[in-house]
Design brief:
With about 375 residues, this protein is α/β, with parallel strands linked by helices. The protein has 3 domains: about 160 residues, 3-Layer(aba) Sandwich (Rossmann fold), CATH 3.40.50.300; about 40 residues; about 160 residues, no CATH class. The chain has 15 helices and 5 strands. The chain has a 5-stranded parallel β-sheet, with helices on both faces. α7 packs across α8. The chain starts with 10 loop residues before the first helix and ends with a helix.
């Protein structure tokens, strides 16, 4: 099972997919991978895609092409927008009818399949009802409930679990050579989100931004503090998004210039400007999504903090996620008590739901922190 070694905490899923990808087996024509954020849905999907495409023991070589999304027998549908539009779905459905160029199967991966509105889903449904003989679809979503029942009924479902923090820490230590203590802390603070754990462990700026988020939240006592905190954390998320997208944007622009036959820094001829404008529009959409994703990560970090406060107030016992902040968490639990702590946890969950509906991130954070400041405004005996 060395091929699947980077898939953490999913032994049953790996066993199922290894059997399905065997050379003497005809796999289901459509799969639905579900699991919480960070469970490795996309990583597993691309591993499975390469295993299906490969004709023999060349899986690793095929996977390198699949991971780079350059294999001719791979199609990928994803989006930088909040929703996958119907035009993109129609285009990918058209390619589903192409015969494999090199491998055993043509595989189409739809990341964030939960971002398909009903009209878009219906385009996909027609393709799933009449699947080409040598095409396999792999859909990824947080849960089965995020897709239409008609889509779910035409796929084989594979549910992933949240990997343990210890398993992720071991992967970071053994594969990436990260110090064991750093890997443990990153895996714990990332709450078993594999990608975020790797980032926290390997990028000091990311860890510092998370620490600043917690500092800001712990410093809120008044409504004025709440409004300032919201503005500060939007800036933190913007910096985080910029760090993620700037390098990608520059690489994409350089590649586009090469493809157009232009030297770096050369003026773009009028007849080519529309192509560059299209690229810039895609990059702007990615920046918007990256900002929202950054705000959601902030909310996830805050949720871990306030849940720690609830557990402490209830004397519930499990190890804290933010155990480096134990003294501050103890003080907040004493000040708020369990009832107020639960109210703030509920406010964070409401904030995440509002963010998902497209409400302006700054307003989402202001409403959240206003609730937190209200908890501090109550007399201690009431808060308890």
């Amino acid at each position: 099972m060395e091929y699947w070694a980077e898939i953490v905490g999913q032994p049953e899923a790996v066993q199922t997919l290894e059997a399905a990808a065997s050379l003497d087996v005809v796999p289901a024509h459509a799969w639905l991978f579900t699991g919480p954020p960070g469970s490795g849905r996309s990583n597993l999907a691309f591993r499975f895609a390469a295993a299906l495409i490969a004709r023999g023991p060349d899986r690793d070589a095929v996977f390198e092409q699949v991971r780079a999304r350059t294999h001719p027998d791979l199609g990928v549908l994803t989006t930088q927008k909040l929703l996958i539009d119907i035009k993109a779905a129609r285009e990918i459905v058209t390619t589903a009818h192409y015969a494999p160029a090199e491998g055993r199967f043509r595989v189409i991966v739809i990341e964030d399949a939960d971002r398909m509105p009903e009209r878009t889903s219906n385009v996909l449904l027609k393709a799933l009802e009449e699947p080409p003989e040598r095409t396999v679809w792999i859909l990824c979503a947080p849960s089965e409930a995020d897709l239409l029942p008609t889509i779910r009924s035409r796929t084989r479902s594979l549910r992933l679990v949240t990997p343990g923090a210890s398993e992720i820490a071991r992967l970071l230590h053994e594969r990436d050579g990260i110090d064991a203590a750093v890997a443990e802390r990153a895996a714990r603070l990332a709450q078993s989100h594999i990608g975020m754990a790797r980032r926290l462990a390997s990028d000091e700026d990311s860890m510092q931004r998370r620490e600043r988020t917690i500092d800001i939240a712990l410093g809120i006592e008044t409504l004025g503090d709440a409004m300032r905190a919201a503005a500060s954390l939007v800036k933190v998320a913007e910096a985080d998004a910029a760090a993620l997208t700037e390098e990608i944007d520059a690489r994409e622009r350089a590649e586009a210039m090469r493809n157009l036959g232009l030297a770096p820094g050369a003026a773009i001829p009028p007849q080519m400007r529309s192509q560059m404008r299209a690229l810039e529009e895609d990059q702007k959409r990615r920046a918007t999504r990256s900002l929202r994703d950054g705000i959601d990560r902030i909310l996830t970090d805050l949720l871990s903090l306030f849940r720690d406060v609830v557990l402490t107030a209830l004397d519930a016992g499990p190890e804290l996620v933010n155990r480096e902040r134990k003294a501050e968490i103890n003080a907040l639990a004493e000040r708020w008590g369990a009832a107020r702590s639960l109210t703030v946890v509920g406010a964070v969950e409401t904030a995440r739901e509002r963010l998902g509906r497209g409400i302006t991130p700054g307003l989402v954070l202001e409403a959240l922190f206003a609730t937190q400041s209200a908890a501090d405004a109550l007399p201690v005996e009431v808060a308890r």
